[in-house]
Design goal:
11 helices; 15% helix; 8-stranded mixed beta sheet; 5-stranded mixed beta sheet; alpha+beta; Methanol Dehydrogenase, Chain A
Length: 697
């Protein structure tokens, strides 16, 4: 039988085969989406679903698409976009849909295509270069795209025309800068006007951003890759805005207001040809909405909200509907839906995202507790209408008339996709993802005085009395949860459990979904509270499961979890006897501006916050085995983090192990790498904790 590590890697963490990336066409109500043919097929196809006839058909299959002009490779821009989006599939990985016409635009292997949802006609275009981020105009007649830092467009006749470009290699047009794409969720840099006759375009200048070099290959003849990386305390890219005609004339938009606003968060171009910009200050303690007259370029600030810690960016927010301003703000320790400065969602809910806003109200994703997420409609008086029920995690896409709901829970592994019309289910799209070849043996708990959401996973064959070593498997930091009511989250943890561990996964202070105050417990210090809560969870779990062997405790994690794992074995060797730290941040001064400064402040103003959380300063404390793992091609947490900690450990005379991964990025998409990394971690933990190695199961 296929082993779990092999299955996990082959199925791209059980993501391939699941339907995703939904768009609902106007008028026809056809639903476009991406999906591969099975749980072992990573190649995404573009599908259309008719919810009224309950039929799904393939609209575009990459293997059937005709190459137009020169065959092209996927551009570096596209590779970077996929890394920012944590995209692990191939084939058609994204598309844009028209606001008014039943047309979509997409790329396959760098070539631009459009498709008509009604006629099923697919048209390819010959372009000047590899195509990135195609955006179709509202009427479906034009497609804007980025190539080599230029913004161009093609018309229905196939003419390929320049909108904006520069010979300056440090400038690019129509793209999201690194910070916007990695940290703010804005992965676009050009937007069509409602009439499709103009484009709002970003000009990104990285001239003053630090230039780093990444040597990601094991080939000594290869050249380093240059990377403009805005580390904490240094310059961000300069982001300008302009409204361009199709002939290239430009109306500048001075959105930064004498540099008071640092970050361009998102864009809304309304039917009235007014543009609304969401902007944020460098310290992230203020967010504002600017109204732009697209004819004159004049700017008016119409709304601002602030917080003494930080203002959280929420997907889908804010929105302007007519004269109403819809935001998500932290009020009374709840992340609240706020309309015209009045909170309406109540203190019992945490609003996670806005899905659709119209004159009838707001459809939002909300949590009454961090384990679950539900879809709920609010009218402008705050009257609630739930769209989902039952324990689970639910996401949605909606155009107001139709709503696509995707649900995950603890009863089944995959995703259930239901289409609603007027709140009632009318159709379903089948999930093709693979089912893991393991079964969960899991228990949910709330541990300690902070009621830390945790799970304990045990081997299937444990007798309930024999001492068993312990493995903590956290992320444990901002913007990510490991403990939710969805089976897909626990496969790897259960596999480690089945190798003879009691595995504990805990979401301590700093993790989202519970309350703003809970998240802000890590402000100024990303280490102390996060580590303490892992220790508390371990201690409390040992009182429930008295057979846990606290003399053999390991911890593993990736990214922030890698930081937490290394921190644990350095600060508390009396509790943690071995650690595996994957892609860890070791010195927060080397991580990006937006994320790091949100929690630790500016290094110039708050140097102590950086010194107190720097693992290199604590290298001399290492007593127990530590394995550091890092992809050399990682452009998010660069490998220098691991190398600097390793150097500090060496200088302190502390033995440790380092596993560099040639050509591997932060998300380790390569099958053989993903598979063998699990086995290598297991062997290290078994050896370090004195566990007999009988081979993984």
């Amino acid at each position: 039988m296929e082993t779990f590590p092999r299955q996990y890697a082959r199925t791209r963490r059980f993501t391939v085969g699941a339907p995703r990336s939904f768009a609902i066409a106007p008028n026809t109500h056809r639903i476009s989406y991406l999906q591969s043919s099975s749980g072992s097929d990573p190649i995404n196809r573009l599908w259309i679903h008719d919810p009224y006839s309950q039929t799904s058909t393939v609209l575009a299959d990459p293997k059937d698409l005709k190459v137009v002009g020169e065959k092209r490779k996927v551009s570096e821009e596209e590779r970077s976009r996929r890394e920012r989006a944590r995209e692990v599939g191939s084939g058609i990985v994204a598309f844009s849909s028209s606001a008014e016409a039943p047309n979509v635009a997409f790329t396959s292997e760098g070539t631009l295509y459009t498709a008509d949802l009604e006629s099923k006609e697919i048209k390819g275009f010959e372009t000047t270069g590899s195509v990135f981020d195609p955006q179709i105009s509202p009427n479906g007649n034009l497609v804007a795209y980025v190539s080599g830092g230029e913004l161009r467009y093609v018309d229905s006749s196939g003419n390929d025309l320049l909108v904006a470009g520069s010979e300056n290699q440090n400038k690019s047009y129509g793209v999201a800068d690194f910070i916007a794409a990695e940290e703010m969720g804005r992965r676009r840099g050009h937007w069509w006007s409602p009439r499709g006759d103009r484009l709002l375009v970003t000009e990104v200048d990285v001239s003053n951003v630090l230039n780093w070099h990444i040597l990601s290959s094991s080939d000594p003849s290869s050249s380093p890759k240059s990377l403009r990386y805005p580390k904490a305390g240094t310059n961000n890219p300069e982001v300008k805005l302009g409204i361009y005609t199709l002939e290239g004339a430009v109306l500048p938009i001075n959105w930064s207001l004498s540099a008071f606003w640092e970050y361009l968060v998102n864009i809304q171009w309304t039917e009235e040809s007014l543009i609304y910009l969401t902007v944020q200050t460098r310290d992230q303690q203020s967010m504002g909405i600017l109204k732009v007259d697209s004819d004159t370029g004049s700017i008016e600030e119409i709304y601002r909200w602030s917080d003494k810690y930080w203002v959280e960016i929420i997907t889908g927010a804010p929105k302007i509907i007519g004269e109403q301003i819809i935001t998500v703000e932290d009020r009374n320790d709840a992340r609240s839906l706020v309309i015209d400065n009045h909170p309406i969602s109540g203190d019992d809910l945490q609003v996670r995202s806005l899905i659709n806003c119209n004159k009838q109200g707001v459809l939002a994703a909300v949590s009454a507790n961090p384990l679950e997420q539900h879809i709920m409609h609010f009218d402008f008086d705050g009257v609630r209408t739930p769209f989902t029920e039952g324990t689970g995690v639910h996401d949605a896409v909606s155009n107001g008339a139709l709503t696509v709901i995707q649900s995950r829970n603890m009863d089944v592994h995959g995703v259930k996709t239901i289409i609603l019309a007027e709140g009632s289910p009318i159709s379903e799209i089948q999930d093709h993802s693979a089912k893991p070849n393991i079964s969960l043996n899991i228990n949910f708990h709330r541990l300690g005085e902070n009621k830390i959401e945790s799970v304990v996973l045990l081997p299937q064959n444990h007798d309930g009395t024999s001492p068993i070593p312990v493995l903590l498997d956290p992320y444990g930091g901002p913007h990510a949860q490991r403990v939710r009511c969805a089976q897909v989250l626990f496969g790897v943890s259960q596999w480690f459990a089945d190798q003879g561990f009691a595995v504990i996964v805990s979401d301590g202070r700093g993790t989202p979904g519970r309350s703003p105050a809970f998240e802000r417990e890590i402000y100024g210090d990303l280490a102390t509270a996060a580590l303490k809560d892992q220790i508390v969870a371990l201690s409390e779990a040992a009182e429930i499961y008295t057979y846990l062997d606290l003399g053999r405790v390991g911890i593993r994690g990736w990214s922030f979890g890698g930081y937490l794992a290394a921190l644990a074995v350095l600060r508390r060797p009396d509790i943690f006897h071995a650690a595996v730290a994957g892609a860890p941040v070791t010195d927060w001064k080397l991580y990006d501006t937006h994320y790091t400064e949100r929690y630790l402040g500016h290094p110039r103003h708050n140097p102590e916050n950086y010194e107190n959380t720097n693992l290199c300063n604590e290298a001399y404390k290492l007593e127990n085995p530590l394995l550091l793992i890092h992809g050399l091609a990682d452009d998010n947490v660069v490998a220098a983090h691991t190398f600097q900690l390793s150097q500090a450990l060496l200088e302190a005379g502390k033995p440790h192990e380092v596993l560099p991964l040639s050509g591997v990025t932060h998300m380790t998409p390569q099958e053989t790498v993903a598979e063998n990394l699990l086995r290598i971690q297991l062997r290290f933990l078994q050896k370090s904790l004195g566990i007999d190695n009988e081979g993984d199961k």
